[in-house]
Each structure stands twice: as C-alpha cells, then as structure tokens.
Amino acid sequence: MRFLGNIIWIICGGLVSAIGWWAAGVLWCITIVGIPVGLQCFKLSSISLNPFGKEIVDEGGVFSLLLNILWLCASGIELAVANAFIGLILCATIIGIPFGKQFFKIARVALFPFGARVVRVHY
Question: Which of 84, 112, 115, 119 could pair covalently with 107 via S-S, beta carbons 3.0-4.6 A apart?
Fold first, then answer.
C-alpha cells in the first residue's frame, strides 16, 4: 500500500516539492558556508519523493536551533508555504486528505529541518 501511495504521491505534487528542495539545496551549495545547509536539503528531498511509511524525529540542539533560524529567514518560509498550500488544495477532496497530510508533514520539516531525522516506520 505504501508503494501505491508513493506513486500517486509523485503524480499529485510530490515531484514539485522535491524539485523545490533540490533547488534550495543547489542555491545553498553555491557558497562554501552553505554546503551543510544544502546537503540537508538534499537529504530531506527524499521524504518529498516518498513520504508514506516515513516519520520525522526531532533531535535538535543549540547548533540546530541557530541553523534553523538562519534557514527560516533564507529559505524555510517559501518551502513551508508552498507545501502547506498544496496540502490545502489536496484536502479539498476526501481522496486527497492523506496526501494533504503528507504535505503538512513536509511543511513542518521545511520550517525547521536541522535536528530533524527521517526514519522509516515499520508496521
């Protein structure tokens, strides 16, 4: 069921979300200082491609908080708003609600990605 959900997910906007994460990662990797931020963007793009069966675990510290504040000012708001908007559109129908909930999960991680770890959930 996860496989089918992830295939439909890519069609319903997951690819657009992943492209947003990749674009942010490329822009951050232009500078040497921004490479750790860009690598985090690439890592979190994996949840944008197949979110079903994955959860976000927060493991932040002081360094993560400082990077999250920098991230929020530079890229986080745009990605979070875009994912939340797509989630709202998908929640307009009953069939789209599970997909909208996944976009809200990604919007939450788009605000504060540092200290967040993607883990696979085993049922």
Answer: 84
